[in-house]
From TrEMBL:
Gene name tied to this protein: ppc
Gene Ontology MF terms: phosphoenolpyruvate carboxylase activity
Organism: Shewanella cutis
Keywords from the named record: Carbon dioxide fixation, Lyase, Magnesium
Source superkingdom: Bacteria
Name of the protein: Phosphoenolpyruvate carboxylase
Length: 889
């Protein structure tokens, strides 16, 4: 299975090549042991034919197809598993290569913070201003559990263990015996992976997803955060002579796992309660491990007067304090265990770590005492790491956001006003709604009668609000309102929180996610901030969420990107005018079609003034693992975010010229017209989409807890952005990530604006990032494979649409190459280009097999259902293609 990947990777990646070959060889040996030489030879033959087919050898292609279609049922699953696992191991090798000691300089760029500090402090930014900005950075990465993570948690843990082995192998001082032991461990891990079912048998619950998010923190981020802050402190101290505060936390983490109930009936108030308890339990457990270690370290006797007095002159004052904390943490864990098991034990909260200060104050006292007594070196060890973890994660680990659809809140008030004989809230106009809401927000008497028995859906919304009221503000993040469009959408949530007893001012955040909502966002926020009561509630802070997934699905990536840009500009102006600090929450996905892409570039391409030291960004699905799954990778990602936000704040991009704006307006208008002309107006589109992609079959995969559609009986418009992207990536057309863009750029060229476009690409970060993202998806698109899906799966009368789509893809590729003056896509990012090339010979056979399996399953009847082998192999091909493409949705 290892083959010779040298054809696909240049010599500069020798260590990567070596690891890919080694892991592939071990995988091949595992297959040979359990399936025999003949099976392995067939796999190798198909792999080599796929490579030859890539070079244009039609005979090789036909021979490969014959072998694939002739696979007996009992070989379908192991064949799909073989290619699937090779792609996972190739991903792993690449991931490790970026943090390897042997990493090539073209792949492993210098530390972004180090580079930025050098540029800034070379006369461009005042040192004091830079330090003040750094100390107040507020970067909130929001982990979300959308169904894009194909890999099971048990496999992810085995992959991490393989990375540990690869790191150990880089030690040049290893003895032969030690190398043999590492090789044995690798063979054991790959054998374990081979014999583990890659596909979940059941959908994960929202609690399962939340536990997956916590595992990322426990296995990686818990170690990465203090490592990153120590590195950051050293860099700042070297250049300025100043140290960072011990409680600095430029990056914090929130979560939607267990809090996002938009369209997910499985996220209930009971589920959210359990997730909040599990979050706190995980934090207590990890802090307990740290405190136990610290008890062993802080054995010294000398202390300052404050600590002596606190410990009654104990001969081991530091251990005296730490033993007390150790017991409180143990008691906290016992209490939370009982809560998670469904009990509600009575307990004296003073015996627990119940507030952040219960842990922070004693630890800070120990830190100060060590420093006062000349032991700063000791203080800046594990104790400082714990204090910085506390600053980042708190005692709740993750701040949990709540998300709900605006219509669900309106339905609560509509049912209530009907019960009270006041009419139907849903039938009132915006002026009437606002007048009612503001009157009730200022009224001290309860609005909800104690004897009212609401419907189940209404009761669930109210139970969620009551749950929020019971928990401390630091356990919770924002209350996000999806499909928000009017001030009353925000005021409605504030009234429900008031009526259910919430006393802390929770951030209530409108999410603008369709093209029309983005265009109307500034007007909505202006109207909100014009309300005196609301201005008082905000205390000078306003958060707004920008939706990338649904806006791109609504209007296409180019028009959506420009609408997002203009909405941010207008929101900045509105909040500046009102004297309010704006925090923009970017709802990005992992894939380009959902606003994804390199975070550093994305942040630096935002409008000037839109970052200003504060930003929230979703990290979705498999991107959490790719960015934060390994401690060293996580340190790199934290550095990228920190440097990007610091740079966007202190060295913002230029204001776009008016001629650039005018050009983008034309491009946006033409791209949305071209996009909707296909997706909405082409009568055959829905039928073609469902035939040419595994969209229907994806809905049956046990990937995430949330249904694929907002409405079971809905069409494309109700399909979530994730399966929409996922389906098109499976047949390799990648349509949502480019449709409309090429047509609009071509129209600009035909108007004689090529020179203008090249100026924009060279000088405007927003536009250059957009073109770079287009290059990436064009490079991943495979029109010939998409045509094969069409030939095998789509009725002949619909083939005309496929031809149209492939022509538009070709048009887009040509115009982008002309714009960038290049003969090759991604010429300026050879690492990414080679990465795509490396995978293709392994993804292609999975695609060809997938079409065969889709054809078989679609022919099944109640009398002749597809075999279990066919169904499982189909799921494995979907998982394998997702692994190869590196972003599923």
């Amino acid at each position: 299975m290892a083959g010779n990947v040298a054809d696909n990777v240049t010599d500069m990646y020798a260590s990567l090549r070596s690891n890919v070959s080694m892991l592939g060889q071990i995988l091949g040996d595992t297959m040979r042991t359990h399936l025999g030489d003949s099976f392995l030879e067939k796999v190798e033959q198909i792999r080599k034919l796929a490579k030859d087919s890539r070079r244009g050898d039609e005979a090789a292609r036909e021979q490969m197809l014959e072998l694939l279609t002739a696979l007996p049922d009992e070989e379908l699953v192991p064949f799909a598993k073989a290619f699937n696992q090779f792609l996972n191991l190739a991903n792993l090798s690449e991931q490790f290569h970026t943090i390897s000691r042997n990493c090539d300089e073209l792949v492993c760029v210098p530390d972004p913070v180090e580079q930025l500090l050098g540029r800034m402090l070379n006369g461009r930014v005042d040192q004091t201003k830079m330090l003040d900005c750094l100390k107040t950075l507020d970067i909130d990465l929001v982990l979300t559990a959308h169904p894009t993570e194909i890999s099971r948690r048990t496999l992810i843990q085995k992959y991490a263990a393989i990375v540990d082995c690869l790191a150990e192998q880089e030690n040049n001082q290893l003895s032969d015996r030690e190398r043999q032991q590492i090789n044995l461990r690798l063979r054991q891990l790959i054998a374990q992976i081979w014999h583990t079912n890659e596909i979940r048998r059941e959908r994960p619950t929202p609690v399962d997803e939340a536990r997956w998010g916590l595992s990322t923190i426990e296995e990686s981020l818990w170690h990465a955060v203090p490592d990153f802050l120590r590195q950051l402190n050293d860099q700042v101290q070297e250049r300025t002579g100043q140290q960072l505060p011990i409680d600095i936390a430029p990056v914090r983490f929130s979560s939607w796992m267990g809090g996002d109930r938009d369209g997910n009936p499985f996220v209930t108030a009971k589920v959210t309660q359990e997730v909040l308890d599990r979050n706190r339990h995980a934090a207590a457990r990890l802090f307990l491990k740290d405190i136990v270690l610290l008890v062993g370290e802080l054995s010294m006797e000398e202390a300052n007067d404050e600590l002596k007095a606190y410990t009654n002159n104990s001969c081991e004052p530091y251990r005296f304090v730490l033993r007390s904390l150790r017991q409180k943490l143990r008691d906290t864990i016992d209490y939370l265990n009982a809560r998670i098991e469904g009990h509600n034990p009575e307990v004296d909260k003073s015996t627990l770590i119940w507030q952040e200060r219960d842990l922070k104050a004693p630890l800070e006292m120990l830190y100060k005492s060590l420093c006062d007594c000349g032991m700063r070196l000791i203080a800046n060890g594990l104790l400082l790491d714990i204090l910085r973890r506390l600053a980042c994660f708190g005692i709740h680990m993750l701040r949990l956001d709540i998300r709900q659809d605006a219509g669900r809140h309106c339905d609560v008030l509509a049912e209530l006003t009907r019960y009270l004989g006041m009419g139907d809230f849903n039938h009132w106009d915006e002026t009437e709604k606002q007048a009612f809401l503001l009157r009730e927000l200022s009224n001290r008497r309860p609005l909800i009668p104690s004897n009212w028995q609401p419907s189940a859906d209404v009761a669930e919304v109210l139970n969620t609000c009551r749950l929020i009221a019971k928990h401390p503000a630091k356990a919770l993040g924002s209350y996000v309102i999806s499909m928000a469009s009017k001030p009353s959408d925000v005021l409605t949530v504030l009234l429900l929180l008031k009526e259910t007893g919430c006393t802390h001012p929770m951030r209530v955040v409108p999410l603008f996610e369709t093209l029309s909502d983005l265009n109307n966002a500034a007007t909505c926020i202006t109207d909100l901030l014009d309300i005196d009561w609301y201005r008082g509630y905000t205390k000078g802070m306003q958060e707004v969420m920008i939706g990338y997934s649904d806006s791109a699905k609504d209007a296409g990536v180019m028009a959506a990107a420009w609408a997002q840009y203009r909405a941010q500009e207008q929101l900045v102006a509105v909040c500046n005018q009102a004297g309010v600090k704006l925090t923009l929450f970017h709802g990005r996905g992992g894939s380009i079609g959902r606003g994804g892409g390199p975070a550093h570039k994305a942040i630096l391409s935002q409008p000037p003034g839109s970052v200003d030291g504060r930003i929230r960004v979703t990290e979705q699905g498999e991107m959490i693992r790719f960015k934060f799954g390994l401690p060293k990778l996580a340190v790199q990602s934290l550095a990228l975010y920190t440097s990007a936000v610091l740079e966007a704040t202190l060295l913002p991009p230029p204001e776009p010229k008016q001629e650039w704006r005018n050009c983008m307006e034309r491009i946006a208008a033409e791209s949305v017209s071209a996009y909707r002309g296909i997706v909405r107006e082409e009568p055959d589109f829905v039928a073609y989409f469902r035939a040419a992609t595994p969209e229907v079959e994806l809905g049956k995969l046990p990937l995430g807890s949330r249904p694929a559609k907002r409405r079971v009986d809905g069409g494309i418009e109700s399909l979530r952005a994730i399966p929409w992207i996922f389906a098109w990536s499976q047949n390799r057309l990648m349509l949502p990530a480019w449709l409309g863009a090429g047509e609009a750029l071509q129209a600009a060229c035909q108007r004689g604006e090529m020179g203008l476009l090249q100026d924009m690409e060279r000088e405007w970060p927003f536009f250059s990032t957009r073109i770079s993202m287009l290059e990436m998806v064009y490079a991943k698109a495979e029109p010939n494979l998409a045509r094969y899906y069409e030939t095998c799966l789509v009725p002949t009368n619909l083939h005309h649409l496929g031809e149209t789509l492939r022509q538009r893809l070709d048009l887009g590729i040509k115009v982008v190459l002309e714009l960038t003056k290049s003969d090759t896509l991604m010429a300026h990012t050879p690492w990414n280009r080679e990465s795509v090339k490396l995978r293709n010979p392994y993804i292609d056979p999975l695609n060809f097999l997938q079409t065969e399996l889709l054809a078989r399953t679609r022919k099944e009847t109640s009398e002749t259902p597809a075999s279990e082998h066919v169904q499982l192999a189909l799921m494995l091909t979907i998982a394998g293609v997702a692994a190869g493409m590196r972003n599923t949705g």
